[in-house]
């Protein structure tokens, strides 16, 4: 785990930063407009993680909570910051905010993310065929995962 990490809640004002981070974490980046539109919907929560030593953002998570159920929309850690427990910290913060059930989707070939979610008691409850598109044009299935809290 990182000793020099601070986290803060995000809002629509962070749309540019969130978009830039998303673009460095994933092959299909979300635009600043997409990020901003998420915060126009009820129940949006988000956290950004910043490395104290560099004062640079290194990860983020966005989640929507409606009627006690939550969906983690995206969670990302910069490639150069992975393996430091940042994803675990961000996921933990979001699990504290959820009330009963949390859902998320993850690429079926994302071993690191699958290991993280399974270590936090998420179970696969569905599959979306060819859901994610890679830069090379190939398609990857998405696994829908669920965790019941409490």
Please, could you describe this protein's structure?
- The chain has a single domain (about 5-150), classed as 3-Layer(aba) Sandwich (Aminopeptidase).
- It has about 150 residues and is of the alpha+beta class.
- The chain has helices spanning about 15-25, 30-40, 85-95, 110-120, and strands spanning about 5-10, 45-50, 55-65, 70-75, 100-105, 125-135, 140-150.
- The longest helix is centred in the middle third of the chain and has 12 residues, at about 85-95.
- β4 (about 70-75), α3 and β5 (about 100-105) form a beta-alpha-beta unit.
- The chain has a seven-stranded mixed β-sheet, sandwiched between helices.
- Helix content is about 25%, strand content about 40%.
């Amino acid at each position: 785990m990182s000793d020099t990490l601070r986290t803060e809640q995000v809002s629509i004002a962070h749309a540019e930063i969130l978009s830039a981070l998303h673009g460095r974490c994933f092959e299909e980046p979300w635009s600043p407009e997409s990020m901003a539109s998420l915060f126009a919907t009820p129940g949006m929560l988000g956290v950004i993680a910043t490395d104290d030593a560099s004062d640079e953002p290194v990860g983020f998570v966005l989640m929507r909570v409606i009627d006690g159920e939550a969906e983690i929309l995206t969670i990302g850690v910069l490639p150069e910051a992975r393996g430091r427990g940042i994803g675990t910290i961000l996921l933990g913060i979001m699990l504290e905010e959820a009330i009963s059930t949390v859902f998320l989707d993850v690429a079926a070939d994302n071993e690191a993310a699958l290991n993280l979610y399974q270590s936090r008691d998420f179970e696969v409850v569905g599959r979306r065929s060819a859901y994610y598109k890679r830069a090379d044009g190939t398609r990857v299935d998405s696994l829908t995962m669920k965790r019941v809290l409490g």
